[in-house]
Structure formats: structure tokens, C-alpha cells
Amino acid sequence: MKKIIITGALGQIGSELIVKLRSIYGADNVLATDIRKTDSPVIESGPFELLDVMDAERMHTLAKDFGADTMMHMAALLSATAEAKPLLAWNLNMGGLVNALETSRDLGLQFFTPSSIGAFGPSTPKKNTPQDTLQRPTTMYGVNKVAGELLCDYYYQKLGVDTRGVRFPGLISYVTPPGGGTTDYAVDIYYKALETGKYTSYIEQGTYMDMMYMPDALQAIVDLMEADASKLEHRNAFNVTAMSFEPEQIAASIRKHIPNFELSYDVDPIRQEIANSWPDSIDATAAKNEWGFKAQYDLDSMTKDMLDKLANNK
Predict the structure, then answer these.
(1) Residues 117 and 94 in one domain
(2) Domain range enclosing 302
(3) For the chain, which end, N or C, has fewer CB atoms within 10 Å of the first or last residue's CB respectively?
(4) How far apart (Å, rounded) are the C-alpha atoms in residues 293 and 284?
(5) Alpha-carbon span 34 to 10, nearest angstrom
(6) CATH number of the domain to which 256 belongs
(7) Which residues are known catalytic residues?
(8) Residue 151: which of 95, 107, 108 has the closest Cα?
(9) How many domains does the chain have?
(10) Burial of 296 by CB count in 10 Å (0-12 exposed, 13-18 middle, 19+ buried)?
């Protein structure tokens, strides 16, 4: 990677990925794009252009004029939002992906887009979910992700595009507030712990989900994109994970720093149904063997860093 264009640059992953990539490859070599413009540091720290990912012509023009050699397509509607607006999610998530893949095919770009544990469904083995297994998701977001994995495989196998991707678990960050994902309770709980000392979880007690701290997620993207292509067998759907926990466990971790923290429950049926359809824990052996994936943070080290960073940001 030398010159990188990123869609959805102001989203949960993109806003932090931009900062990391600019620190590695140089600010002028990473073009951030998004459908909106805000006062985000992303816009001030390097080149930025407005882009609706449904506008294939503008996407192609921006990538060509920038001289990009890599496309990172991060723009998408997340799980709970996609379930509330399924047709919009299909059109945006799949239409934007096709446009990004076509731009990459025409310009010979290396390509990355994230998949998700949402690509799994209730019939998928829930514990230590294998890399290659049954995928029958029951959400629009999951359908989008499975279709996206297959589409990226097709563009690699039939059209020669160097496509790569990972299946992210829930991502936890102190930079970007929660924004419509099923796993976002594990982000919001830290904000509320510092603000009020209590949190009401919309996810039921005992519901395990895979999670990862954002620094590990960003490093995984860089490592995969820099990996030797000849060693990649799976390419577009690597399982990656760092930890699996349920709400009581994250509360217990927080109480090591905020002893009086209180956790209660008001379960959201929609997001709970989505969570129930996902694995409890997944097997990341393929990512470890094929490109050396390794997470640095566990629950307690993440909790300490989250609380420290959020407190310092106040």
C-alpha cells in the first residue's frame, strides 16, 4: 500500500483507520471520503473529498485522480440500523460494494472491505465457530455480509482483483461513540460508567459475543493488507477475535476501577434476537496461520485503557 482511498472515513472504523494509515504511509497518501463533512480531525489531517458510494462515476474519478493503488471500502449501514431499514441497507451496502469493486478492477487496486460475525446465523456452531462453516444469517446485515464475502471471492477468482477482508467481532473504541450496532452496548457501557456510574444494558445477561479493541482491529487491517498474497487461502472472510464476554463480565471488569458501578437490564428484542443469532466465540486459527494475526488486548487491559482514555478526553 502506498496511496490509499477510503470510503466511509468518518464512520466507526474509518475515522480511526485514517489516523493510523496516515501515521504509517504519510498524510498526503491517504484520501478520506465520506457522504458528509464534519469537524472531525480526519478532515483536517489530510486530503478529504465528499463521496456518496452510490455514485460510481465520482468514486472512480477520485481514485484515478488521486493515483490510488489501494481501496478500503468501509461505508455501510450497521446491524440494528440495517434491520430497521432493510431495503436501504441492501441498496447501500451492496450497491456501494459493487461500485468499489468495479473501481478496483478497472484501476488495478488492492481492495479491502470488512465482513462481520453478522455473516453467521443461528444454525452456525456457536462455540469456537470454525473459519469455514454453515452461514445462514437471519438479518439483512448478515445477508449483506455473506453476499459481500462471496462477491469479493468472485472478483478475486474470476476477475483478478486482490481482495482481502476479515470478519470483525464487536469493536470497542474510545474515539467513536456507539452508532447502531448490536455490540455497541460494550462501547456505551464505558461512557456511562464514567458519566453516571450505572448502565442499562439492552443485551440480556448471559449473552456472550466476540469483541475486539479497536487498536487490535486497525493493526489487523494493516497486517492483512501487507501480508504475502501467496500465503492467503481465505482472503475475504478471516475470522478474527480477541475476547468473548457477556454483560456481567464487562461490568465486573469495570468495577475493578469503579467499585460502585451498577448494571441493570432493559432488553431490546430486536438487538437481542440479532445477538442470539451470532456465535459465542469464534476460531481465528486461519488468520493466525496465514498472516500472523495476534490480538494484544484482553478484557481487563482493554477496560483499563478505555477508562483512562475516556477520562482524559473529558
Answers:
(1) yes
(2) 174-211+243-281+297-313
(3) C
(4) 8
(5) 6
(6) 3.90.25
(7) 141
(8) 95
(9) 2
(10) exposed
